[in-house]
Amino acid sequence: MENSIELNQMREQLAILNKKLNSQAIVNEKLIRASVNKNVKSINKDGRGMTLLAVAGIACIFADHYLVNWSWPFTIVTIIFMLVAIFFNIYCRNGLSTERALTSDLVEMRLAALRFKRFQTRWLFFGIPFAICWIIWLVYETLNLTPNPEPVIIGCVVGGLIGAAVGINQYIRAQRQASEIIAEIESFRNDETPTQE
Questions:
Q1: Which residues of 112-134 are buried (b: 16+ CB within 10 A; e: fewer)?
Q2: Range of 153's domain?
Q3: What three-state secondary structure class fits 1?
Q4: How far is the C-alpha of 41 from the C-alpha of 93, rounded, in Å?
Q5: What is the pTM of this model?
Q6: What is the rounded average pLDDT for all residues in the chain?
Q7: Are 25 and 79 in contact (CB under 8 A)?
Q8: How many domains, the chain?
């Protein structure tokens, strides 16, 4: 009789402990989701900013075609590159939304963050060589087709340096935030695994 009372008490204590562990896991998951959501918002805000810069770049290059007298092939190739950059920017952020950060499976968010990091890095393998070729073409166009190339070259150098600084900063920040998303989810999953066994 005494053994059954002790056994029942142990079962009750185990049930209370299990309930506390489950509630702690729920609280931890909410904290992780809030942190993931914060990083996703920041990544997407940067993405919208880069998209707006590319749209402004399209408008500027079109206007500069007439103001600076750049050739149509240069103007068209530049506009196509900006459009590709816009669509790629949207595509690589496709799985990273605040709605998904709050509701979807954390494993899916981890995979979306890994995909984002991989696509963003792949873009560099295309974007940097293209930018180098484009700069050479820009200098050629400016020196050969504009009556007064010095102010245009100075403006392009200043704009290029500012653009490079913004792009590098955005890339590093987005990679860090995606890494934080991945690390937080992996840490949560590692902490959660023993309680499920």
A1: bbebbbeebeebeeebeeebeee
A2: 45-196
A3: coil
A4: 11
A5: 0.76
A6: 84
A7: no
A8: 1
